Amino acid sequence: MMIHPNFDPVAVHLGPLAIRWYALSYIVGFALFIWLGRRRIKQGNTLFTNELLDDLLTWGVVGVILGGRIGYVLFYKFAEYAANPLSAFKIWEGGMSFHGGFLGVVLAAFLFSKKHRLGFVKTLDFIAPLVATGLASGRIGNFINGELWGRITDPSHFWAMGFPQASHADQYLVQINPQYAQWFTQYGMLPRHPSQLYQFALEGLCLFAIVWIFSKKPRPTGQVASLFLAGYGLFRFVAEFARQPDEHLGLLTLGMSMGQWLSLPMLVLGVMSFVYCGKRNRVI
Question: What digits encode the pLDDT tens for the residues 38-61?
């Protein structure tokens, strides 16, 4: 069994200023968005310019941060924040939701397209191939922080990893399962799936490759965005089987996690939209 290195969450100390790895993962994600966006513009077949891309990034950053935080408050800890609303503004304590950030970006894209009189769906088609690398960067940030660890697995598996950050959760599980107590005694922690790396590979690298390659040829309007929507929904749904559910939520109806329940509509809507756009907006 491997042991998580337990990295210092702060990448660089500049006097009183601390730059965290997670903040750097966002910066890397935004930089990749611009770099890939400029490549798409050079390829042609788009109304976007470098100036529009820069403005789009500004709208997108606001959408990701506000949407991600609001989504986390509503989807994951609504009761807690409802009891203490001001704590919702303490973003430095962590707590972001991809699904909320996704909705925030969609709203930002809508407002951006209205401002510049661009087609909303075409804007989404332009954005879709640029997003997954940011997701990959974010999952590396999760791994460095040792957060969002996976479910328990057998220590004999080569992928098994112990997370020192999960000690509280480990001690709880030890009390309810004798097998876990044996492993804990032997290793000092429980073996888990490094689910952050699974999500890095699926929602990040694989999704990027699929959507980027698909978008290189002219496609019916809406299909590129629909492919991203369905692809993320599928990969996130699958990865959640290895990811530890949020402690305060656990598994919900039908034994599915909150992440799976939020991803399932994305998968269904993405597939339906992909088929609909293919029939309605044929490329001639």
Answer: 999 998 878 899 999 999 999 999
Report d(CA 26, CA 29) in Å as an integer: 5
Q: Say which residue the tokens 């809508």 belong to.
A: 110
Q: Are 180 and 193 in contact (CB under 8 A)?
A: no
Helix (H) or strand (E) segment spanning residue 191: strand 191-192
**CA–CA distance, 143 with 2 (Å, rounded to integer):** 14
Q: Using the 8-state DSSP alphabet, how is residue 219 labeled? A: -
Given a contact cutoff of 8 angstroms between Cβ atoms, the answer to whether 48 and 36 are in contact is no
Structure-token pair, residue 152: 């328990």
CB 184 within 8 A of CB 170: yes
Q: What are phi and psi for residue 3, nearest 5 degrees?
A: -120, 130
CB 6 within 8 A of CB 144: no
